[in-house]
């Protein structure tokens, strides 16, 4: 799972498939199919953490899920970023830049919504702790986040 890390990626935020993440208090910004296809095909599904920035805004901590996309009958992957920050507005259509720096756990099925939410809360706490470590913190300042707006660079 760590072989491709750190992984830099930039792309447009598109409408997801309405799993109701926002209703759970954990909105996830979905990348387009084209961006997902540009990921290494052997990258493990599961929960990761790293840094994210919308447009040329501030860089925030994030947790990310790489999972199987139910919209495509689970033959294609989906990549969804939950930014650990409260935004005033949605940002569909904007360019999201991320660097994935670490891996937390594989995908799991949960017996209840409550169990799912508490697992995600733990993932968020784990991401926050890990990202404060110097080796992860240094990527927050990476030049990748200060490149001209709109320039799309995958696998930089
Ligand atoms: P969808 O199924 O369209 O992805 P979600 O319920 O997952 O819907 O909500 C995702 C949208 O919420 C994002 O595309 C973005 O515009 C908005 N959003 C607001 N705050 C955040 C955040 N902290 N992290 C990710 N997305 C956010
Ligand atoms: Mg989503």
UniProtKB/TrEMBL annotation:
Entry keywords, A to Z: ATP-binding, Flavoprotein, FMN, Kinase, Metal-binding, Nucleotide-binding, Transferase, Zinc
Broad class of enzyme this protein falls into: transferase
UniProt record, GO biological process: FMN biosynthetic process; riboflavin biosynthetic process
UniProt key word Ubl conjugation: no
Listed EC numbers: 2.7.1.26
Top-level taxon in the UniProt lineage: Eukaryota
Flavoprotein as UniProt keyword: yes
Cofactors named for this entry: Zn(2+)
InterPro entries, per database record: Riboflavin_kinase, Riboflavin_kinase_bac/euk, Riboflavin_kinase_dom_sf
Pathway field: Cofactor biosynthesis; FMN biosynthesis; FMN from riboflavin (ATP route): step 1/1
GO molecular function: ATP binding; metal ion binding; riboflavin kinase activity
GO cellular component assignments: mitochondrion
Residue ranges of every copy of the Riboflavin kinase domain listed in the record: 2-132
Catalytic activity: riboflavin + ATP = FMN + ADP + H(+)
Function: Catalyzes the phosphorylation of riboflavin (vitamin B2) to form flavin-mononucleotide (FMN), hence rate-limiting enzyme in the synthesis of FAD. Essential for TNF-induced reactive oxygen species (ROS) production. Through its interaction with both TNFRSF1A and CYBA, physically and functionally couples TNFRSF1A to NADPH oxidase. TNF-activation of RFK may enhance the incorporation of FAD in NADPH oxidase, a critical step for the assembly and activation of NADPH oxidase.
The name this protein goes by in its record: Riboflavin kinase
Gene name of this polypeptide: Rfk_0
């Amino acid at each position: 799972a760590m072989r491709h890390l750190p992984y830099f990626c930039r792309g447009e935020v598109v409408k997801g498939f309405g799993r109701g993440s926002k209703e759970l208090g954990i909105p996830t910004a979905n990348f387009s199919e084209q961006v997902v296809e540009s990921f290494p095909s052997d990258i493990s599904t599961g929960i990761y953490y790293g840094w994210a920035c919308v447009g040329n805004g501030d860089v925030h901590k994030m947790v990310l899920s790489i999972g199987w996309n139910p919209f495509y009958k689970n033959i294609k992957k989906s990549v969804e970023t939950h930014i650990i920050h409260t935004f005033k507005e949605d940002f569909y259509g904007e360019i999201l830049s991320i660097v994935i720096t670490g891996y937390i756990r594989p995908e799991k099925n949960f017996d209840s919504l409550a169990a799912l939410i508490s697992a995600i809360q733990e993932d968020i706490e784990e991401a926050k702790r890990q990202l404060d470590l110097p080796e992860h913190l240094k990527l927050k300042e990476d030049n990748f986040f200060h490149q001209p707006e709109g320039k799309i660079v995958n696998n930089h």
